[in-house]
Amino acid sequence: MSTRIGIVGSGIVGQTLANGFIKHGYDVTIGTNTASKREELSAKTNGKAKVGSFEDAAKFGEIVVVATKGTAAEAAVRAAGIANLSGKTVIDTTNPIADVAPVNGVLQYFTSQNESLMERLQALAAEAHFVKAFSCIGNAFMVNPDFNGVKPTMFICGNHDRAKMDVKAILDQFGFDVADMGSVEGARAIEPLCILWCIPGFLSNSW
Hints:
Oligomer: single chain
Largest sheet: 8 strands, mixed
Shape: globular
């Protein structure tokens, strides 16, 4: 099992997953495109993660995680370096949330129903092995969540079987059953699950 994880993105999802990987014994480099955040990020991981640029994280990781806002994901992949992702398992946590307000609690997406953000990322970095994961659950529940003894299901998809096996092994450590929704097009169904679980959050603060 690959033990070096590079995380492209330094928001709450990137920080949560970085600490989750550290908890499970992985070596982690977290990348930020904001140099002033580096010291803060080191503190957020108790100094246990290396901190660098998106490119540093992508080069370091045997497995790479894209954990940016959806609107920034394509630019982040370019900044990480397409060549640095070639042949690697890349976990795509992103959702194509538009920079506009929800409508009656319903998020707006910048993709259509017949396209996913993951398909765009896979087309952009064609030699990388993208696997969708962690996009259908809030950051508070991403690492060994406790649902009163019930193991939650994580939906994944991707074109590369070995990459999906890599991700299944991680998800098992992180406390999830895995439901494989097939190839990259499965992200068209997985990404909108974020809209669904956010509705009670926006309407009644039930996250």
